[in-house]
Amino acid sequence: MDNVRLKNSTVKSRDLHEPVVLDPIASNKGYGYHVLEIATIDFTRPHPIIEQCVALEHESWNPQEDFLDYIAKRDLLAYVTFKGRVVGFLVITVWLNGDYGVVSFDEAMISKDQRGNGLALKLVWFLCHLLVVRFLGDRSIKRAVLLGLTVSPVAIQATYRYRRIFRNNSFRPNEQLTDIAWQYLKKYDYEALDPSSPWFVKAAFPGSSKWKPKLRKGRDRAIVPANFDCHDRGDAFLFMGGASRRFGTVVTTVRAIPWFGWGIMKGYDFTVPLRRVESTSLISERD
Fold it and tell me: What superfamily would CATH give domain 9-286?
């Protein structure tokens, strides 16, 4: 059995049906939490973690793009294991924009038999903490922005519940947050449902979701526009939240330590440098 050396771990299997043996960065209730820097992956060779993520994606999603092509344009793959098996993952892009460190949660998948265990939320906080700690090492970064695009009514409702964590968010944006949102739509060639607002995206994932919970009357429908169609057309909600670097550190630390213990405070030894995107005012261009 071949060994494949990964950062902070050794994988001892290429077979999807055999356990993947590796040391997690953090653990909670038998689940291990891990990170791969995508730029360090050799895509010319079979990769046991990537193969399991592909299988996991096809459980719940009809992808718009080949998974390898998709993640090759991203920065980080965070994943959670249980009894040697990958049971969830999160694909992330990170860049710098002015004095903002921007974290984009591009894709999240949890195995059907593990849903309801809070794994997606823990993966998000796990990554948030590692990246905020990383941002502390760059004095040019003053604020952190988290963003994610989702077709799930459950996720939309969750972002609404957690909106007050962030002083500025999709429900109460400032100009710079709105500017970054327009840049995001332009970067991935998305079309806004309303030409004057970037927060709801038209046909972002047509036919992709195999899991289709219904939008509930009342609160769900009050959050989204009347013409929002996440099921048939694949419309999506763009959530963004911005906070100062110091406040972000406090919040993620308070959230991460009870789940992952004090060991999470040492952070992670990232090797790939952050990319800087020149800040341009797309708001001005549109006016």
Answer: Gcn5-related N-acetyltransferase (GNAT) (3.40.630.30)
Structure tokens at 260: 């992952």
Q: Tokens at residue 1, please?
A: 């059995």
Q: Which of 26-40, 177-191, 245-259 has the lowest mean pLDDT?
A: 245-259
pLDDT at 169 over 50: yes
DSSP sequence for 198-230: EEEEETSSTTTBS--PPPPTTHHHHHS-TT--T
Taking 70 as the threshold, does the pLDDT of residue 279 lie above it? no
**Alpha carbon 138 to chain centroid, angstroms:** 21
Closest alpha carbon to 75 in 156, 118, 130, 121: 130
Domain ranges of the chain: 9-286
**Which residue shows structure tokens 């990958």?**
86
- pLDDT band with cut points at 50, 70 and 90 for residue 18: very low
CA distance 245 to 249: 6
